[in-house]
Amino acid sequence: MNYKLIALDVDGTLLNDDHVLSSGTAEVIKMIADQGTEFVLCTGRAPVNSIPYMKQIGLEGYVITHNGAATVNVTTEEIVHEFALNPFGLDPYMDYCRKNNIHFDVNTTFAIYVEGVAGLSQEALDMYHKFMMEPEDLPGWADFSEPIVKFTVTGSMEQMDKVYSDWSQWEQEFNMLRSGDFFIDLMHKDSSKGSALQKLAAVRGIPAEQVMAIGNYYNDLTMLTFAGLGVAMDNSPLEVKAAADNVTASNNEEGVKLALQKYCLS
């Protein structure tokens, strides 16, 4: 199959556990792109910390960010599509977080906001800086000039298990995603990597059977099942592997490179 659009998750997929993109993987991606295939990073990250990887490889095109909530042009940083959520619906979730001492942040496409930036722990600041993010003080809803696309909570795996269990019992107006062992995201009900990838493929005139997707976590399920070929990393949970068409090596073993060589160069 000649795949015309390839969607790659970033953390746990494209990058190894040290958040490094291997030179071998970058070379194979560029080789395939030079043959006319489009690549799109499809990630829970924001544009500011995903576009640099596209530029590092030498790619133009698009990034699907915030787990599908915002699609952005790499070159112009123009927002192609956003799934804006209702911020007032977040109030009970924020109250829960304050009561249970759970860290949360609020995201527009290009900015991230937290309560009391000045009082953030060094650990929290280090986490944001590791992902190339600089948080700003959270204003009131009426003071936002850009749509809110994602609400994220973070903590230990045990804390996130408890939060997910509690919130699963609520009547949901949002799409609630376990986007990592230590993260839970709330987004617009229609927002997902799969729906954003489907919209991008339609705009580019590419049928699903000519789309390939590679990912490693629950937030990748919708894009893995939409794509004509969905490939899970070996470091994926069993449910993700079961939903994929094939499984490649782990992110620490250049699984993306191996999958691309197998399905796009052989």
TrEMBL record:
<dbReference type="InterPro" id="IPR023214">
    <property type="entry name" value="HAD_sf"/>
</dbReference>
<dbReference type="GO" id="GO:0000287">
    <property type="term" value="F:magnesium ion binding"/>
</dbReference>
<dbReference type="Pfam" id="PF08282">
    <property type="entry name" value="Hydrolase_3"/>
</dbReference>
<dbReference type="InterPro" id="IPR036412">
    <property type="entry name" value="HAD-like_sf"/>
</dbReference>
<dbReference type="InterPro" id="IPR006379">
    <property type="entry name" value="HAD-SF_hydro_IIB"/>
</dbReference>
<protein>
    <recommendedName>
        <fullName>Cof subfamily of IIB subfamily of haloacid dehalogenase superfamily/HAD-superfamily hydrolase, subfamily IIB</fullName>
    </recommendedName>
</protein>
<dbReference type="GO" id="GO:0016791">
    <property type="term" value="F:phosphatase activity"/>
</dbReference>
<dbReference type="InterPro" id="IPR000150">
    <property type="entry name" value="Cof"/>
</dbReference>
<dbReference type="GO" id="GO:0005829">
    <property type="term" value="C:cytosol"/>
</dbReference>
